[in-house]
Amino acid sequence: MTESAADALICLAHLGEPGDQVLGAYVRKHGPVATVEAIKSGKSGLRDAAGFYARLGLADPQAAREKCQRIGAQLITRGATTWPTQLDDLGDAAPFALWVQGAAGLRLVALRSLAVVGARASTNYGESVCRDWCATFADAGWTVVSGGAYGIDAAAHRGALEASGVTVCVLASGVDVAYPRAHEGLIARIADSGVVVSESPPGQGARRHRFLSRNRIIAALTRATVVIEASVRSGTTSTANAAMALNRHVLAVPGPVTSPMSAGCHNLIREQGAILASCPEDVLEVLGPLSVTALSRGTDSRLWSIPHLPTDDLSAREKRILDAFPSRGEASLNQLVVDAGLGPMDVAAALGILTAGGFVQASGSKWTHAGRA
Amino acid sequence: MTESAADALICLAHLGEPGDQVLGAYVRKHGPVATVEAIKSGKSGLRDAAGFYARLGLADPQAAREKCQRIGAQLITRGATTWPTQLDDLGDAAPFALWVQGAAGLRLVALRSLAVVGARASTNYGESVCRDWCATFADAGWTVVSGGAYGIDAAAHRGALEASGVTVCVLASGVDVAYPRAHEGLIARIADSGVVVSESPPGQGARRHRFLSRNRIIAALTRATVVIEASVRSGTTSTANAAMALNRHVLAVPGPVTSPMSAGCHNLIREQGAILASCPEDVLEVLGPLSVTALSRGTDSRLWSIPHLPTDDLSAREKRILDAFPSRGEASLNQLVVDAGLGPMDVAAALGILTAGGFVQASGSKWTHAGRA
Predict the structure, then answer these.
(1) Chain B residues touching residue A286 (CB < 8 angstroms)
(2) Contact residues, chain B to chain A, C-beta under 8 Å
(3) Fold of the A314-369 domain
(4) Which residue in A125, A266, A278 is closest to B270 by CB distance?
(5) Angle at B307 between CA B302 and CA B313, to 5 degrees
(6) Where are the domains of chain B?
(7) CB–CB of B256 and A257 under 8 A?
(8) ipTM above 0.85, yes or no
(9) What's the pLDDT tens digit per position in B15-72?
(10) pTM of the model
């Protein structure tokens, strides 16, 4: 990707509201650079062009990069090697860029992730189940993704942290704006070992409609969404609906029929085909093994953009080639042959497996390490 | 049905163990009279012939009828007009005869019935949900069928009784042997307004294997089975499995995933396709309306042998013809035309509807009122 394309995507991330499909379709048709130029020259013809134009002053890519450095965040643009490609399943509603803060690499940890979401007004039952289960998921090597909210979200992050697992918090506000404020400490702890991510620029507060658009990111990033307590019509069910629309697995945890906080879960199971999860193993069974061997299983379309990613399961040869990648940028086959000290056939075969597993990305005759910028 | 066939069925009900499919298949092939003769003459060739022969002394139909009179019970044999024909769905495992005690007519009340079953070691949660729901089912005109056991069964009967509803208790022991003994009063109250029924002759105690065979009767009698609390491997799940095998609806009530008593319900939903029921309306929706209008819906094979039975929904003409039936025995078309004072075409059309609705039974050119002996 050219630098100007990345700059244009950063600019667009400031102009459009999250999930704006009209702008997304325009970008798909004309590309990000031409889209920004059309908005600047007032020739885009987009319905919201005036609003975009008004925001141009806030959408300077250079200033955005500098701000990122100041707050210790990273800016990842669509198409970058660190981009979580499963977000592309969102089509025209996919984000243009993500602001990321934290110790872990988003793309890598998201490849082995599940979403755990639920009611803010949760019960002790829901919170205790959530915390226990998320610790189990973390123990099994899975990344727990949630939204940092009160109730079930917080219990999900805490359960993963208690098991020293990686957890990802997708904020509706900018990554430097803790929302809710009471979770400032929790969000900081998440960043210490995991990732805090947002498609809204730093400094932006959480707005009501952004919670719904944020939920689609949670659904798209992960291989499955587990709902633990939800009232019948709620933001949580919107995450579940988004996950279903993306052909992700949706599981719901039952509870007493006398608890309104379980009514949304029962509804998801009864009316929408969510899988009933009565123990963490029910969830792990649906997620499938954390193993590249699963790749040979073939054609489960639900997983096509979310390959497994366990370096533990790679062969010595594959690990050796992965290690041979340069710390930045692309590598050619020849370069890898030289650096790994293996034959071209061996390297090519291993690259096939590494590509399928999401460890590396091919572009033309070059390969890039997915975990390196 | 001839008297000798009824006598033979009564005899067979004393000889075979409930649900004996080998004996059932023999009876299907040779008829009840020839089967009894073959057993008496030692020529049946049945594997258990010696056991059947040994029981012949206890299997005197006349003595059985007299005992029934003494204890105030009724003896209904397969094929009688008061026989609940949905039991024939059990095929070779269908009972030969039923002992019935109580104020209500089994065939009539079973036509609008559902089974509510569950764990003996139930929790307060399960019992209170069960009692509430069964009162609602009774209020809606449905007969609650259960097994009279501790826990959920007892709560089901009590809930129906509290709403002054009809409830049916299917015992594994004879109808004059209250099991468990502590439920003697409850079982007597069930008989006061509903029905206590058994396929085992009076005086017989409950034996372990008879609970499982009893469960098939509960499943077959009813239009749907609702499971409220069950451990994973239990008698309750055997009732659910029997209901599924008979293409009856099976619903299960979720509960806390931390409760072992809900684990069987969650398993039924997750693994066996039981419908999640979170409120009594979920169940009523599956049962369908208590209305003959439902008959015109056509071809739901699950319901073919369990027609709806609401005299309230009959037309004035149909009610008039139903009233014209003699108090006992069959009626010809001519007889009904005379007694109802309606034209033969009208009577014939109404008889079609009444037959479809389970109000009357056709045999040859005669009709019998399903609610009269």
Answers:
(1) none
(2) 125, 129, 253-258, 262-263, 266-267, 269-270, 275-279, 282
(3) Arc Repressor Mutant, subunit A (1.10.10)
(4) A278
(5) 135
(6) 1-59, 106-287, 314-369
(7) no
(8) no
(9) 998 999 999 999 999 999 999 999 999 999 999 899 999 999 989 999 999 999 999 9
(10) 0.77
